[in-house]
């Protein structure tokens, strides 16, 4: 089957790219080895960052500038006013709260954020503070950062392309053929007694951490990527709704997002500096540390009946000399293979635009529908997978 582009990897980057390619008339399909959104996308907190978290560590961070325009694109799509139409994606909230404690470090961090953000946080009167922050000694702001239900987003975007989504076995059912110049000339897929040969003009790798194995299989440099791990915390129980960040000097001390589990309980996912600190901690030690941090910045929330768990997630990025986060979307072009890393969920639209700008071809102008092939399912959120929930005194 002749194709313009084969995308490998069904997280936010791959799905957004597939949609953009299809809308522009490219013959394209997406291959996914596991579940759509597994790895980073569904495990993320779903915040459409506008650059706030990047300004705290460096007030002129180019990463903040790269992010600044993206939330507006997402907002239009989520409202159904731009493509892709994401009006069926559930939002956890239309804005976040940004708060600081009474410490001098926290005041400095808030001042830095307000100086450089494109959309300034708006201080709100105490009568409008969320329940969880009512006893805070500090300030609370509204920050126009929407928070996605990430699994809902993946399902919404995937629903538009079911016959262009192919489940693959990367170990036993995926083989690349290359021509004399080293370009990929064919991709052979096997599923039991069924086989399918794709002949793409371009291959785009958007598999996050899986890009390393794909690049090795293609005999490309598999050391071009870096991993920056996180150890996230989840709290489940009778908790108030809260979505936002507490700043403390040059860091986001905690970032908390709220969701509803399938058992009807409220779940907080806790990231920020806590998840960085927790990388070298056991789940038990991290939970104790996280509880202390949360109680310091979210006073008087009752955790007596709460249960706690953790999960680990690896942020896959193009390797940098310093080992720090890249400034924005990064691409590597080698022959007809493009390896792409969005760096942040919110940058998926930019990645799609950047990749399409690299394609030296006119689209075929017709769509692809592949029947009778297994389809990847959407990954469940981390709290539905967690087996070990613990209680604390």
Overview of the structural elements:
The protein has a domain at 93-146 and 227-317: 2-Layer Sandwich (D-Amino Acid Oxidase, Chain A, domain 2). Helices cover 24% and strands 29% of the residues. It has eleven helices and 18 strands. Strands 1, 2, 8, 9, 10, 11, 17 and 18 form an eight-stranded mixed sheet that branches. It has an eight-stranded mixed sheet with strand order 5-6-4-13-14-15-12-16. Strands 3-7 form a two-stranded antiparallel sheet. α1 (12-23) crosses α10. The longest helix has 15 residues, at 283-297.
**Radius of gyration, Cα only, in angstroms?**
22 Å
Helix content: 10-25%
What pattern of helices and strands is seen along the backbone?
EHEHHHEEHEEEHEEEEHEEEEHHEEEHH
Q: What's the main sheet like?
A: 8 strands, mixed
Let me know the number of strands: 18
Helix-strand makeup class: alpha/beta
Strand content is 25-35%
Amino-to-carboxy terminus distance: 61 Å
The CATH level-2 architecture of the domain at 93-146 and 227-317 is identified as 2-Layer Sandwich
The unreliable regions are: 54-60
Oligomer: single chain
Q: How would the global form be characterised?
A: elongated
Secondary-structure blueprint:
Blueprint: E1 2-8, H1 12-23, E2 28-32, H2 52-55, H3 62-67, H4 70-78, E3 91-93, E4 96-100, H5 104-116, E5 122-123, E6 139-143, E7 147-148, H6 150-158, E8 165-167, E9 174-178, E10 184-191, E11 194-205, H7 211-217, E12 225-237, E13 244-248, E14 251-260, E15 266-271, H8 273-277, H9 283-297, E16 307-318, E17 330-334, E18 337-341, H10 348-358, H11 382-385
Helix pairs in contact: 1-10
């Amino acid at each position: 089957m002749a194709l313009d582009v084969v995308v490998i990897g069904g997280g936010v980057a791959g799905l957004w790219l597939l949609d953009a390619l299809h809308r522009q008339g490219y013959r394209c399909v997406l291959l996914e080895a596991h579940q759509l959104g597994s790895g980073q996308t569904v495990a993320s907190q779903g915040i459409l960052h506008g650059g706030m978290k990047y300004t705290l560590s460096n007030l002129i961070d180019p990463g903040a500038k790269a992010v600044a325009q993206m939330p507006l694109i997402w907002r239009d799509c989520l409202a159904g006013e731009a493509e892709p139409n994401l009006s069926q994606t559930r939002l956890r909230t239309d804005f976040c709260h940004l708060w600081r404690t009474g410490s001098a470090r926290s005041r400095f961090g808030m001042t830095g954020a307000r100086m450089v953000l494109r959309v300034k946080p708006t201080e709100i009167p105490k009568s409008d503070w969320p329940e969880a922050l009512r006893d805070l000694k500090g300030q609370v702001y509204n920050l126009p950062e929407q928070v996605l239900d990430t699994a809902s987003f993946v399902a919404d975007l995937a629903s538009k392309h079911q016959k262009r989504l192919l489940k693959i076995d990367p170990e036993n059912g995926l083989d690349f053929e290359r021509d004399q110049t080293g370009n990929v000339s064919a991709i052979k897929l096997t599923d039991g007694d069924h086989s399918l040969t794709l002949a793409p003009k371009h291959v785009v790798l958007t598999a996050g951490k899986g890009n390393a194995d794909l690049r090795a299989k293609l005999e490309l440099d598999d050391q071009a990527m870096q991993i920056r791990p996180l150890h996230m915390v989840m709290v489940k129980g009778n908790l108030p709704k809260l979505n936002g960040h507490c700043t403390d000097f040059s860091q986001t001390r905690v970032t908390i997002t709220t969701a509803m589990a399938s058992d009807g309980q409220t779940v907080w996912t806790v990231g920020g500096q806590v998840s960085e600190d927790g990388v070298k901690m056991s789940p038990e030690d991290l939970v104790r540390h996280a509880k202390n941090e949360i109680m310091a910045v979210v006073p008087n929330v009752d955790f007596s009946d709460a249960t706690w768990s953790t999960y680990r997630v690896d942020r896959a990025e193009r390797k940098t000399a310093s080992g720090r986060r890249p400034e924005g979307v990064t691409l590597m072009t080698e022959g007809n293979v493009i390896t792409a890393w969005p760096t942040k969920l919110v940058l998926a639209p930019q990645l799609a635009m950047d990749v399409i700008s690299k394609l030296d071809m006119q689209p075929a102008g017709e769509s692809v529908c592949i029947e009778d092939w297994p389809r990847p399912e959407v990954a469940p959120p981390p709290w539905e997978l967690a087996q070990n929930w613990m209680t604390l005194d």
